[in-house]
């Protein structure tokens, strides 16, 4: 900032009239200088404020700023001797050139269109079903068996016998003690055992003191299996640790549905045929 201040010359005329006091003249001069200084400072502050505002507005832009700082300063001079005040005003014209740079931003928008082509492939599967028909021929052979039934003529003992139902002869009886030494004779008697005695003579020793006697008799051999046939076998009597301590022969006939026995007297007393 440049401030041009023109001061007028003080014209002092020598005359008979004098200032009342030299100190008063100096005070008036100092007051005038102080007023001028204040005005100059205010003007400079105003210009600085204008420059600051302009600078902020054009920040981040390219600009050329030329400033001629204005000055409009008035200086008052007072002549206390003549009683008049002279004011000198200097006017400066400030020209401000502001170059404004306008930034134009061009935004280019590219629109991309994506076309999706969907290809659908249709697969046709043809299933051929082959049905194989199998015909099974089943040949049924019918064999006719001619069975000739020959009537078996059963022996006389199958229809003529003595029935024994004495439950004391059964293998489970152990109370009484009797014997067969004088019951059937030496030639024998055909008998058929029926319940509750049993239906046959056991094929294994029952043990001693059973079947209502001391030494029970059991059949030691096979039974006949053909209807009308007769088998001769041996009956043993179990005693004193010997399963066949005594024995005698008997005959057995198979009468198709039951058995008949040709029994003779036992060898000694306290021997008895057991039934089961």
From TrEMBL:
Which InterPro entries does this one have?
A: D8C_UMOD/GP2/OIT3-like
Q: Which UniProt keywords apply?
A: Disulfide bond, Membrane, Signal, Transmembrane, Transmembrane helix
Ranges annotated as biased composition (Low complexity): 85-146
Q: What highest taxon heads this organism's lineage?
A: Eukaryota
Q: Which Pfam families match?
A: D8C_UMOD
Q: Where is the signal peptide?
A: none
The protein's name: UMOD/GP2/OIT3-like D8C domain-containing protein
Task: Record the organism.
Answer: Rotaria magnacalcarata
The major lineage groups are: Eukaryota, Metazoa, Spiralia, Gnathifera, Rotifera
């Amino acid at each position: 900032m440049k401030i041009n201040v023109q001061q007028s010359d003080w014209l002092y005329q020598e005359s008979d009239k004098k200032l009342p006091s030299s100190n008063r003249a100096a005070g008036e001069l100092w007051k005038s200088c102080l007023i001028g200084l204040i005005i100059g400072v205010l003007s400079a502050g105003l210009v600085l404020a204008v420059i600051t505002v302009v600078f902020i507005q054009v920040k981040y832009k390219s600009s050329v700023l030329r400033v001629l700082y204005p000055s409009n300063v008035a200086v008052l001079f007072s002549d206390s001797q003549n009683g008049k005040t002279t004011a000198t005003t200097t006017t400066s014209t400030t020209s401000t050139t502001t170059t404004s740079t306008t930034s134009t931003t061009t935004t280019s928008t590219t629109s991309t269109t994506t076309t999706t082509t969907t290809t659908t492939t249709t697969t046709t599967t043809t299933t051929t079903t082959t049905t194989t028909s199998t015909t099974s021929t089943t040949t049924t052979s019918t064999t006719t068996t001619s069975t000739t039934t020959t009537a078996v003529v059963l022996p006389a003992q199958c229809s003529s016998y003595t029935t024994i139902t004495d439950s004391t002869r059964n293998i489970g009886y152990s109370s009484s003690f009797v014997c067969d030494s004088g019951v059937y004779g030496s030639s024998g008697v055909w008998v058929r055992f029926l319940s509750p005695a049993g239906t046959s003579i056991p094929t294994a020793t029952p043990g001693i003191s059973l079947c209502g006697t001391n030494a029970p008799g059991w059949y030691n051999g096979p039974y006949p299996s053909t209807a009308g046939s007769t088998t001769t076998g041996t009956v043993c009597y179990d005693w004193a640790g010997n399963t066949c301590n005594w024995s005698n022969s008997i005959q057995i006939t198979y009468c198709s549905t039951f058995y008949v026995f040709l029994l003779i007297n036992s060898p000694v007393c306290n021997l008895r045929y057991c039934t089961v």
